[in-house]
Amino acid sequence: MRHAMSIVEGLAGVHARRDAVARAPSSRHPVSEVTSLLAVPEKAWSHLADRAAEPNAFYLPAWARAVSRHAEGKSGARALLVWDGPTRTQLIGLLPVVTAWRAMRVPLPVLVAWQAYAPLTTPLIDRDAIDDGARGLVAAAAKAGAVALMLPALASEGPVAAALHRAVSAFDIDPRALDPHQRACLDATQDAEAALAGLGAKKLKELRRQRNRLGDAGEVSFKCATQPAEAASALESFLSLEASGWKGTRGTALGKKPGDAAFVREAIAGLSAAGHAEVVTLWRGQDVVAAGLLLRHLRRGYFSKIAYDESVAATSPGVQLTLDISRKLCGDRAIDDVDSTAIADHPMIDRVWRSRLSVADLILPVRRAALPFHMIANLLAARRAARDIARRKFRVARPQKGKQP
To answer: Hey, where are the domains in the chain?
Structure first.
């Protein structure tokens, strides 16, 4: 128990010092509610996203609404909302959620942050009302009948995580952190060559040799589609490449399911029109050999998806594309860092991007209840561990052809 508490305190950063943090009394009277995700007023949602204390491109309305409308088995999420007052003039907090039964097949009074094509569950909270927003989300979860709120893949060292810890401090029940880990992140404030120097001179030389080899059959070029029409065309190249590889064989490629294809087409169209998405491609002559989806929110980028032509895997097209992305984003003054959205210890991206984003699954009490919080947390931890074992077996069993070095 003591070890678990120390993990939580380290993740939150300010948990042990929360009583020493001076906060001005709030002049707001926030109102919490729970509603269908698709019923959230889009204008209020977009305004909140522009004012968010922390970014999360996967909770932008264009992405989340498209997933909910089209993706197979992903509809029906609810939203915990916090408004600035009874007149509901400004949205100051939003978190999409589903039940623990739906998310994990666990029959517990727990709400789980929605992870439908969302590898990050940091809530959108107004930067000027962060404590009101965090308390309001906890109150909304309690209003929905939950005893606990679970946020898988939460950015665990930012101001939102700290505010969530403060929001539940009155319960005198310590939150629980599961699977704290770090995933690759690009520090885009660096010079591009400095950012890539961690690969080492020998590896960079080998990648240059492979790029020259790739170019033997046609000029190699990198393109970035930012406008909706260009992005739509590049997206089709991405979908085709993904479907031609091992994901297509397993039936998990986005283009293999009509609903998933409809979701990503709608999402990229809406996000690119607002400057929140671009599709990047690596070409060999007239052929696309690698493609990726980049999302943006505030000053953070997200490397959401990548696909490559497995017939030229020996030239590392996915890595070549990642190098081009790195150079592009290091020269972009609107971006400070880029979340890889990858698993921990990813065999490719971890070696290319050397900065790290701390992530954990956070379980918060939202009210005192007859069923002890620690029992709920233990059951959720056991269920999560079982799912992790199943996922590891899947990764080991999947085809290894074309694996990028």
So the answer is: 2-183+359-397, 189-335
